[in-house]
Structure formats: C-alpha cells, structure tokens
Amino acid sequence: MSIDALLLLMTLIWGTNYALVKSAFRELDPQAFNALRMLLASAVMATTSRLARHGGPDAIFHTPARVTPPEWLRLAWLGLVGHCLYQYLFVGGLARSSVANSSLIVSSSPIVITLLSLLTRHERPGPLHWAGTLVSLAGIYLVVGRGARVAGESVGGDVMLIGAVVCWAFYTINARSLMERHSPVGVTALSMLIGTLVYVPIAAPALARVPWAAVSAATWLKLVYSAVFALCVSYTIWYAAVRQIGSARTAVYSNLLPIVAMATAWLWLREPIGALKASGAAAVLAGVAIARMGTFRPTMDQS
User: Fold this and answer.
1) What angle do CA 195, 190, 246 make, to 5 degrees?
2) Among 71, 235, 288, 290, which one has the highest count of C-beta atoms within 10 angstroms of its own C-beta?
3) Is residue 79 classed as helix, strand or coil in its secondary structure?
4) Does 117 or 295 have the greater pLDDT score?
C-alpha cells in the first residue's frame, strides 16, 4: 500500500476519533480515559517492537541500531512533550471545546510544523507547499470555520488545543532524526512509554474517582479502538511517512480531518452538508494535492 493511501487511512481513523472519544467522556473522566488509553497503547507498541526483533529486519517495525545515551535523553524529552504534555492538552481541550473547534485547531498543525521546520532548518518548503497549505486552510474555514463558535466556556479548551498543536509539531520535527537510525515503531514505543509513565501519576486522582461498575461495554470498546487505531496504528503511519516524505508534507494530511469529521456527522447524526461545506471540502483536497507535489530544498543542518 502506498504512503498516500496509508495517510488517508490515518486521516479516516483520526477524523472519526473526535466524536468517539468525546462520547466516552460521558462515563469516564477525560484524563482517566486517556491514562487507560495510553497504558494500553504503550503495551501494544512495546510488544510489537519487541516481537519485531525476532521476525527479521524491518525498517518500519525494527532496526538493529542500539540506542545511545544522548538518544535516550532525546527520547525522554520527546516522551514528555510529544506524549505526556500533548495528550494532556489534547484531551483536556477536546473535553472543554466542540468537535468542530477541535478539528479546526488541530488542522492548523501543517502551518505550525512548516514554520518550525523552516525556523529550525530541518526542511525548507517550496512555493507549491505553501500554496497548497493556504488553499487547504481556506477550505477548512469554509467547512467548519464559519460554524465554529468561540464561546466563553470553550476558550480554555481552545487554548489547550493550540498548545497541543505546538507540542505535536515539536515532536514530529524532532523525532525525524531519531527515525533515520531507528524504526518509527521503536521510537514511538519508547517515547510513548516514557510519556505514559509520567502521565499516569498525574491522572491518578481522576482514575481513583472512576465508577468502574458503571462503565459500559461500549465505552470500553471505544477506549480499545482509540488506543489501538488512533494511537498505535495511526502513529506508526504518521512517523513512517515523516521518515519517507518529511514532516511538512506529512502534516498536510491533517487538513483532511475536518472533512472526515463532517462526513462522520452526516452519516451518524444526519447533519446536512450544504454547498458551502462541499466547496470547502473540494478546496482542502485540492490544497493537499498541490502541497503533495511541492518540493523541499535541502538545508545545511539536518540534525
């Protein structure tokens, strides 16, 4: 399967994950839900990485290179920022804001990643990438921007989501050099495990308040789906793509998230899709195609 097809699958998983996770908050505290989700995802990723060692060399699941002490320090830092802090801000923001606002804010990550890549000299996007990104952002605004309201009660959640986008951009850019020596699954598994070990004690009070007997089977299924697909499968696709096509071009696919969220709402909730939203969806798709064709000039510093 091509990397573009895998990225579209990832977008489908992440786009449907918003409503699924938010609905689970009716029975589980957001931070408790996320702590359990991260524990399960870390176990699955660590087990996959471990088993891959015995299944022969695989550039995605396992590489034989040993992790050096400086790399362990970078993994610890990435785990704290890209998993612990990111997950805390993302879930807290989603719980306080609407799905429309959340998907719109997270879809701005290509701009943040592109700017950070440029500032840190990791990648130098060309004109087509910038043009495609701007066209996609215009389409995102047509899809959900006109209907996304910044109500007083959601401002705090929106600010948390903006912080989550910055954390995600930092992790995406700085993990790439590690993935030049190690597999995406290995880097993600180790950094996620570190982030989870810090996150769980923070969420301990929320976990202690969970009425376990009242949690339905449907909520447990949502948690398992979100852990295995939204974290394990999608993270693997994301970082395999980062290693193959770069951070900025991979991030462009985040622009598709509002479209998936909109389509999901239409299918499950029968929310209407008007001509304006359809035009916005077409603009997003066109922007992704334009940015995907863009070139990146080499920089002197690729560390």
Assistant:
1) 95
2) 288
3) helix
4) 117
pLDDT tens across 192-209, in order?
999 999 999 999 999 999
Other C-beta atoms closer than 10 Å to the C-beta of 153 total 9
Cβ atoms 226, 91 nearer than 8 A: no
Task: Provide the 3-class DSSP secondary structure of residue 125.
Answer: strand
- Is residue 59 within 8 A of residue 52, CB to CB? The reply is no
Burial of 275 (0-12, 13-18, 19+ CB in 10 A): exposed
Give the span between the Cα atoms of 252 and 291, in whole angstroms.
7
Regarding pTM above 0.70, the answer is yes
Strands 296-297, 124-125: pairing kind:
antiparallel
Helix H or strand E segment including 124: strand 124-125
Q: At what angle do helices 257-269 and 99-106 cross, to 10 degrees?
A: 160
Instruction: Output the six-digit token pair for 157.
Output: 């959640």
> Angle 3-24/257-269 helices, nearest 10 degrees?
50
φ, ψ (nearest 5 deg) of residue 281: -60, -40
Sorted by where each begins, the domain ranges of the chain are 3-297
